[in-house]
Amino acid sequence: MDIETLNGVSTMEVNIGITEENREKIAEGLSKVLADSYLLYLKTHNYHWNVTGELFHQLHEQFEEQYTELAEAIDEIAERIRAIGFRAPGSFKEFNELTSIEEDVDQPKAKEMVKRLAKANEQVIRTAREALKPANEAEDEATIDLLTERLTVHSKTAWMLRSHLED
């Protein structure tokens, strides 16, 4: 067992068959997916609380399903970052620096909420695709599986949201 001491804290070396350099690239990609997922969670939860209009009941329930799923996913993503030996970002400041999801500065109407959530889910897909590259290069199947699941969930969610906008 190799134990390292950094800043007075002892840690065991991570030896999972993926180089530290590759693990760091994977952790950076996952951190961006985590930040995007967290900001999408906040946006979705906000819309759940504040949606009004004729679609209220349907959207209120749909948004709740989505933010509940995101809460579980956020935990899995953060735990994967830790499992490969890196600190998971966990503050709003860190998330804000890493995310590509736009924060709302207004209170949109129901259809605009749906449109923004569809776009935000599509952004998470793009971020996850970028994060897949270093995971594929390192043959990190656990991260590939996690990101593939995220792609599946966000693709379906974006499709369901876009369906509300069709005439």
TrEMBL record:
Q: Does the keyword DNA-binding apply?
A: yes
Give the classification, highest ranks.
Answer: Bacteria, Pseudomonadati, Balneolota, Balneolia, Balneolales
Query: Per its record, how is this protein called by name?
Result: Starvation-inducible DNA-binding protein
Stated family? Belongs to the Dps family.
Q: Which InterPro entries match?
A: DPS_DNA-bd, DPS_DNA-bd_CS, Ferritin-like, Ferritin-like_SF, Ferritin_DPS_dom
- CDD domains to which the protein is assigned, alphabetical: DPS
Sorted keywords for this record are:
DNA-binding
Name the PROSITE patterns on file. DPS_1 (PS00818), DPS_2 (PS00819)
One of this protein's Pfam families, by short name? Ferritin
Which part of the chain is the Ferritin/DPS domain?
28-167
What GO molecular functions are on record for this protein?
DNA binding; ferric iron binding; oxidoreductase activity, acting on metal ions
Keyword tRNA processing found: no
